[in-house]
Structures are given as structure tokens and as C-alpha cells.
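Z., the sequence and structure:
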Amino acid sequence: MLLRQLLEVKEQLEKAFLAKQQIEQAEKARGAELQQLQARMAQVEQTRKKLEATNQSLQAGKKEALEENQLLLRQLLEVKEQLEQAFLAKQQIEQAEKARGAELQQLQARMAQVGADS
């Protein structure tokens, strides 16, 4: 009977030992998995920081481009106004030249008439 009890205790100890080994292996595997996840999280965080810096840079570039576009638009409008003024001045000059040309023709016609009368 004592031998049987010893054998039962031995079997229980073996089962407990095997169970302990399985638990240790599972813990070791989970530890390795945890380390992989932590390494992956570190990579993700590093990538997030890089993307954040890139985003800030792009935002700054966008702001700068918008400001430059506004400046260019103002300059373009100023040039347009100057061109319109120059065009209107040119039209006035052309009209004045046309009127002077007509006056000149009238004067030449009068001179020719005066010359013919003399």
C-alpha cells in the first residue's frame, strides 16, 4: 500500500513537473511575443513621430505657399490695373492723334485753298 501511494505521489509529481514545464514554455513564448510587440510598438511610435514631423513641415510649406500665392495675386492685380491704365492712356493718345490728324488735314486743305486763291 505504501508503495502504491508512493507511485501515485510520483505520478502526481511527474504530472505537476510536466505541467510546470508547459507553463514555463508558454510563459517563455508569451515573453518573446511581448518583446516582439514592444519592438513593433517602438517602431510604430517612431514612424508616428516621423509622420508628425513631416505633417508639420507640410503644414508650414502649405502656409508659406498660400502666403506667396496671396502676394503674387496682389502683384498680378496691381499689374492688371497698371495695364488697364496704360491701355486707357494709349486710347486717349490715339484719339488725340486722330483729332490732330483731322485738324492737320483741314489746315492743309485751307493752305492749299489759300495758295490757289493767291
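The mean pLDDT is 94. The radius of gyration is 50 Å.

Let me know what you think.
H.
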